[in-house]
Design the sequence.
């Protein structure tokens, strides 16, 4: 299939399902939900974040990743042949190291262990860090 | 809120909402809910679509102070929706083992052959898009479905325009392979 055909079909994706969404109902619910949040004084207004706990988890995960993340990641990359896929991609030379990592990450998406090695720990919330720790333990 | 009848920009509505005008929030939802629903559906949202649209807007308004206007409000909302969908999947993974990829078409009236074939093709594209890695899928849908410029996609996803192009390139290549 040609790129133009894929792009044309992509424009219509989800149109039927979107028509079933009752926009007025959604708008009313959102406004009610926001009003409730304001009334309860927890508007923008999240629960206090347990920073110490999150920081501890982050440190633990970082230590685990340092030990095994790189090894598994390199193996996953090699197994997926992701480096070979990058050859000849336009614009690649403009990317920073971090961006190249993200591209490589997306190419090696079948290998979750590799992804762990490139996602910033600062991006993860407490539950994600917990999951990550459990995965590392497993 | 600005006078009724005048075209009101998203920025003005956001300011009005920040000032406590709930009608402004409602108007923003009405303006952007349909493209958001198309985006989320194409990205893999199912029966939870309407709830997800609601949750996305709720999150957006709750974090409105983080909206800097680097990307448009719509693009910003789409990226929040993308994250909300990931949360749904994470939650579902923990609770069930239902496949997210087996998308069933709703039973409908019998189509003429050509229309059925076109539907089938569109469905195959939809399923293939859902098999893309998250970043490629987001970039592809923002560009191909929503028609958003690379610069804006890049700003919304915190990547460079060059990286956005590379992700798009890989997405199209992978889609071609999947649709062979």
Sequence:
């Amino acid at each position: 299939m040609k790129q133009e055909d894929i792009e044309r079909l992509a424009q219509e994706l989800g149109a039927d399902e979107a028509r079933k969404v009752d926009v007025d109902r959604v708008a009313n619910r959102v406004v009610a939900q926001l009003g409730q949040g304001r009334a309860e004084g927890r508007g923008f207004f999240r629960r206090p974040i347990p920073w110490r706990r999150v920081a501890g988890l982050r440190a633990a995960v970082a230590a685990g990743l340092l030990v095994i993340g790189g090894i598994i990641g390199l193996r996953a990359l090699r197994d997926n042949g992701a480096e070979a896929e990058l050859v000849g991609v336009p614009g690649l030379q403009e990317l920073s190291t971090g961006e190249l990592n993200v591209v490589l990450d997306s190419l090696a998406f079948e290998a979750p262990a590799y992804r762990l090695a490139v996602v910033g720990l600062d991006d993860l919330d407490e539950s994600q860090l917990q999951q990550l720790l459990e995965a590392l333990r497993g | 809120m600005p006078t009724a009848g005048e075209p009101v920009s998203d920025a003005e509505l956001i300011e009005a909402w920040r000032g406590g005008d709930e009608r402004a929030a409602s108007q923003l939802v009405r303006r952007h809910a349909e493209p958001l629903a198309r985006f989320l559906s194409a990205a893999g949202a199912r029966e939870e679509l309407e709830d997800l649209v609601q949750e996305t807007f709720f999150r957006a308004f709750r974090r409105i102070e983080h909206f800097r206007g680097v990307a448009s409000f719509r693009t910003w909302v789409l990226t929040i929706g993308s994250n909300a969908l990931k949360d749904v999947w994470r939650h579902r993974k923990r609770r069930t083992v239902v496949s997210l990829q087996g998308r069933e078409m709703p039973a409908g009236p019998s189509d003429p052959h050509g229309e059925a074939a076109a539907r089938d093709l569109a469905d195959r594209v939809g399923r293939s898009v859902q098999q893309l890695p998250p970043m490629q899928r987001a970039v592809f849908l923002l560009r191909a479905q929503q028609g958003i410029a690379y610069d804006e996609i890049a700003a919304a996803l915190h990547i460079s325009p060059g990286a956005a192009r590379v992700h798009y390139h890989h997405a199209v290549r992978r889609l071609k392979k999947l649709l062979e």
Summary: The radius of gyration of chain B is 18 Å.
